[in-house]
Write a structure and sequence with these properties.
Layout (H helix, E strand, L loop, with lengths): L2 H34 L5 H13 L2 H12 L21 H25 L3 H9 L4 H12 L1 H16 L3 H7 L9 H10 L3 H25 L3
Helix pairs in contact: 1-4, 1-7, 2-4, 3-8, 4-7, 4-8, 5-6, 7-10, 9-10
C-alpha cells in the first residue's frame, strides 16, 4: 500500500475496532432492551436511535460537536480539568463511527431477540435458571446471527463515514484522517493515484463485509 494510506489505514482500523466494541456492548444492549422491555419513552429512544438514518450527517455531526466540545453543553456539567478531549481527536472519530452505525446494529439485534421463542425462556426459568443465565445460554446463542449482522452492517457504515467525522474529527492530516477522508483529500489535492488505491481498498473491505454478511449474518 502506498505511503499515502499508511496513517489512515491504521487509524481507520483503530476507529473500527473501538466502534464495533461499543456496538457490541451498547448497540446490542439497546437492541435487547427494545425487544424485551416496555417502558415510558421507548418511542423517543427508538426515534433517537434512528436519527443517523434520517438526519444529514453534517447536521448530526454539528449537533454532537456542540454537545461534546470542550465547552459543549454536556461538558459544562464537568469541572474544566475533568473534561475529556473528545473532538478533533481519535475519540471523536470513534463516536462518529459508533453513532453512524448505531441503527444498523440495534435493529437487526432487536429483530433477532424478538424472534427468540418465549417458551424457551420460560422453560429455562422454570428449571431454576437465573435471568442472566437465561440470557447467555438461551437468548444470546439464538440471536447470534442478528448480532453478527448488526456488527457487520454497522462496521461497514463506519468504514464509509465522512460527514459526522468531518465535524468531530476535524479532518486533520496524519491525526484524524480516516480512509474515507483520505480519499476526499486526495481528490481535492489532485492525487488521483492515491485516491484510486484507497477506493479499491475500501471496495475490497466492503466486498469482504458483504461475504461475511451472507455467510454469518443472515437472520
Amino acid at each position: 500500500m502506498a505511503d499515502c494510506a499508511q496513517a489512515s489505514l491504521w487509524l481507520t482500523a483503530e476507529v473500527l475496532l473501538w466502534s464495533m466494541l461499543l456496538q457490541l456492548v451498547v448497540g446490542a444492549g439497546l437492541g435487547w432492551l427494545m425487544a424485551r422491555r416496555t417502558f415510558s419513552g421507548k418511542g423517543v429512544l427508538d426515534a433517537m436511535v434512528m436519527l443517523p438514518l434520517i438526519f444529514p450527517p453534517i447536521v448530526l455531526g454539528y449537533a454532537l460537536l456542540v454537545a461534546l466540545g470542550r465547552n459543549g453543553w454536556l461538558m459544562q456539567a464537568l469541572p474544566s480539568a475533568l473534561r475529556p478531549e473528545l473532538v478533533f481527536a481519535t475519540p471523536g472519530l470513534v463516536i462518529a463511527a459508533f453513532v453512524a452505525g448505531l441503527p444498523l446494529m440495534v435493529k437487526p439485534v432487536q429483530t433477532a431477540f424478538m424472534g427468540v421463542p418465549a417458551r424457551l425462556r420460560e422453560a429455562a426459568a422454570t428449571l431454576g435458571e437465573r435471568p442472566w443465565t437465561v440470557f447467555w445460554r438461551v437468548e444470546w446463542p439464538l440471536a447470534r446471527r442478528g448480532i453478527a449482522a448488526g456488527l457487520i452492517l454497522s462496521g461497514g457504515r463506519a468504514l464509509g463515514e465522512v460527514g459526522i467525522s468531518l465535524m468531530l474529527g476535524g479532518n486533520i492530516s496524519g491525526r484524524t484522517e480516516t480512509l474515507s477522508l483520505a480519499i476526499y483529500n486526495s481528490v481535492l489535492d489532485g492525487q488521483f493515484d492515491c485516491a484510486n488505491q484507497l477506493s479499491l481498498l475500501l471496495v475490497g473491505m466492503s466486498a469482504l463485509a458483504f461475504f461475511l454478511l451472507k455467510r454469518y449474518g443472515t437472520i
